[in-house]
Design brief:
By secondary structure, the protein is α+β, with helices and mostly antiparallel strands. 14% of the residues lie in helices and 33% in strands.
């Protein structure tokens, strides 16, 4: 069986977050920020996510939105934790020090 070498960008689309912290609100909204503390052992810890306004959400998702099946990777504090977006009833977005990895479908065909 022949093997092929791939670069990370060949198999997943990588989106980095803005390098800042979004301003949060005290009230509960449907816009939830994923920070490094919310990503552990393959899961997203949704109970501790901070909420933002729709305006903040729109600003912070200009680089890309999150969809069911996207993998969230922490890039520091701590580095290397992963979680998967499993719900589409909440509008999650990347907080500081996180990345979105989305499989490139044509590689896997």
């Amino acid at each position: 069986m022949e093997t092929k070498d791939y670069r990370l960008g060949d198999v997943v689309e990588v989106v980095d977050t803005l390098h800042a912290t979004a301003p949060v609100v005290e009230n509960d909204t449907q816009y939830k920020m994923i920070r490094t503390a919310n990503v552990r052992d393959g899961h997203l810890l949704t109970d501790t996510m901070k909420c933002v306004t729709e305006e903040t959400y729109d600003k912070w998702t200009r680089r890309g939105t999150l969809e069911v099946g996207d993998v969230i990777l922490t890039r520091e504090a701590p580095m290397g934790e992963v979680g998967i977006i499993k719900r589409n009833d909440v509008r999650y977005f990347l907080g500081q020090r996180t990345l979105r990895l989305r499989p490139v479908s044509d590689v896997w065909a």
